[in-house]
TrEMBL record, chain A:
Protein name, UniProt field: Spermidine/putrescine import ATP-binding protein PotA
Molecular-function GO terms, alphabetical: ATP binding
Pfam family for this entry, one: TOBE_2
Organism: Pseudogemmobacter lacusdianii
Membership in a protein family: Belongs to the ABC transporter superfamily. Spermidine/putrescine importer (TC 3.A.1.11.1) family.
Quaternary structure (record): The complex is composed of two ATP-binding proteins (PotA), two transmembrane proteins (PotB and PotC) and a solute-binding protein (PotD).
Superkingdom field: Bacteria
Entry keywords, A to Z: ATP-binding, Cell membrane, Membrane, Nucleotide-binding, Translocase, Transport
Enzyme Commission no: 7.6.2.11
Domain ABC transporter, residue spans: 11-242
Amino acid sequence: MAAAAEGDAYVAFDHVQKSYDGVSLVVKDLNLSIAKGEFLTMLGPSGSGKTTCLMMLAGFETATHGEIRLDGRNINLVPPHKRGIGMVFQNYALFPHMTVGENLSFPLEVRGMGKDERETRIKRALDMVQMGAFASRRPAQLSGGQQQRIALARALVFDPALVLMDEPLGALDKQLREHMQFEIKHLHERLGITVVYVTHDQGEALTMSDRVAVFNDGRIQQLAPPADLYERPENSFVAQFIGENNKLPGTVEELSQGKALVRLATGELIDATPVNVTEKGQKTLVSIRPERVEFKPEMMPAGAHTIGAEVLEVIYMGDILRARLRVAGSDDFVIKMRNTLGQTKLDRGQKINVGWHPQDARALDPS
Amino acid sequence: MTPAAPITPAMLTTADGRPLKAALAAAQARSKRRALFLVLPLLLFVVISFVIPIGQMLQRSFYHDGFSKSAPALQAWFAENPLGTEPDEAAYAALVADLALMQETRAAGDAGTRINYTLPGARSLYTSAARGAKKLEPPFKEALLAEDAKWADPRLWVAMRSAASPWTADFYMIAADLQLAADGGVERAPETQRVYVALYIKTIFLAALITGICLLLAFPIAHLLATLPMAKANLLLILVLLPFWTSLLVRTTSWIVLLQDQGVINSFLVYLGAIGDDGRLRMIYNQTGTIIVMVHILLPFMVLPLYSVMRVIPPSYARAARSLGATSWTTFRRIYLPQTLPGIGAGALLVFILAVGYYITPALVGGADGMLYSNMISFHMNKANWSMAAALATLLLLGVLVLYWLYDRLVGIDNLKLG
């Protein structure tokens, strides 16, 4: 989904800043537009400001500066209960003294809905998450995954157009988490709601989102669809935070026609695509994904620079083989090979040459 | 996802054929013995210092042998002649024989005291009659009546019949503001002597009032404590606990300094001109004083259970309710308040039980109308009327147990959270 233009954004953060103590900013000048029906994920390490942004949108925190708009209306001063935003919390926040049915009934009761309509809607919401038989249970009698579904149903039962999710799958085990990722994704597609999802799990962000906003240090580092984020990180923070990544520090030797030649600290020359380097002699950090590194001579692109490497260890991981190499004096250069029948076996101590397509190596800022 | 099918356990056995339950019990016996061994000192301490003395004390409320132990002849006569029989010459002969025995064993005072409990003013009859009992000649009826005509009082004979058995309900009867009628039945005590029931009701009412005020004051404090950052909350918690570390007497006395007629508050109000010098407020040595001081003393017992419950209520519940569209008042009423119920229950039960049996504070600042039931118990103890004190204490205990039972029925005792 394309980035929403400023005019027709459903949710908009406009120069939003947030400080808790009046000394430091937790959110520094946030500008973000979310289109109607979009699934946007805020991804970042803890303390990066992503949850604060979500809480400001929900109305539990007030912006210190700037404006938050929902459907074109400034909601800075609208109290949370009048925003009509559904929210799923990290620990589900199901009311422990109420049954599942009463939990779902609560948002409908406070809206003054009649009993018949409430029951229809509760049934519909529970069926939607395949929990129809659980209306009379208490939350404590449900497993984590079941509570998760109920929390989801409760956030959707009053038909909000916008649903916020604050690390909703954090407490589930891996298998259930992956299953729920697909369910949430499918619900989003089926209902056409706008979802703002907060997580620190990059896998989750890549799987589910239309666009991902990577947060660090109170700023959005990159806002892009998952594939762009993974394949074309714009700075070294994003490159390191999303997926696995080999880093080679060096200096730009030549810069021409969208290509850069980088001399590493140990003297070797490698090819790279310049991303945020602009002139010769600049320090840079070249980033290459482990699965994009080639070591078979026949697979190397013609004329590519190669670099000598020594195999330090090979780890069997089932679907892939993972080899750690010593490259240019660094011991943590990783490559990944698919575990196929004819795959070349590497042995410890073996000397090989590695190379890559220049567009897979990105010369980023040297931080 | 589907609920597990109920398993009907067949008789399970271990690999060598022993029943599983027996094997489990044998395996756990060792740790159970060790556990018992660990609690044994405390168990003995509680039994020796608590269960036995209190049991004995409570027993006194329905057992008193002050009269019966030195009245064997009368016991025999009462056994032969049912209630309502006019005391004949044989009855008087038995009475004189017992009076002589009392003189011999120097028990006339005890016996008279026992009769005195149910029939005030009867004690001197026994002490004076016992002195000359040996010299009395038959017919004993005339001889005794000549000494004191009160011996013919049918109430006296009813009282003696009741006291001739060491097992008695007399003290509970008195505590219920009843007395023995002349025909051996039970009637209400004269209006001027009806003190116990009214005091019982007043004590329950005051304890409930104090509990209610404590709840109203403690709820916001506990909420503040629970929502503040830890460092500030700890500081405030110390302020809540500070009264615990100060002597009860000092706290009560400082209230006297504040509240008395020439005290700080009154003098300040007079200085401000809010009241005249002759219109000083009476805030102590009455019911008001009892309520004010007891609320202050019992407040921490309400704050602490509330705080411990509120602290573990995650703020996300309130946030969830708000995001679902509830106003802050609805959120409080339907989400927050129900979750604090275990704390409210624990605090209310604790404060109520403490207040119902409180002694020192009402004794010091209660004056005449601020007295509570325990002050009456203490009054009887000071007069060595152990049985009456025990009967009142038992009634207080029963009242508390009934409330406890009600609480269990209405709220459920497993919902209680004391800290």
